[in-house]
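Recap from last week: sequence in, structure out.
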Amino acid sequence: MNKEDKRLKQEYKQTQRAMGVFLIRNMVTDKIFLVAGLDLEGIVNRHKFQLTIGKYPNLELQADWNILGSTNFAFEILDQMEPPRDPKLDRGEELAFMETMWLEKLKPFGDRGYNERKLNREEKLHRIAANRRGEF
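Predicted structure tokens:
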């Protein structure tokens, strides 16, 4: 790798990218899958790639993609923001808030979407206790 390639690679790594929330919409059933990421462009590309090669972690979404084909799905950016200039601000915390807001608004669970509802603190503790008792 020459010096120019190294410089470009280092420059790319240091570039702050927009973070945000996007969804994958099944245009046949109108089901959606909501996703958040610190590098919005990169995460969209990763999800497209995983679906295309058949290695998507959400098996229901992958099955629908396989049956209906990529032309029946749309990738839509819902919300994005440039990284905060203040280094004290937690980008992950900002993104988690944005994701929670959109999950509450769209409720992409069950028949409406491919997301699984996130457990609240009490539900997580209950599940941990049940696991320790061997109930799960």
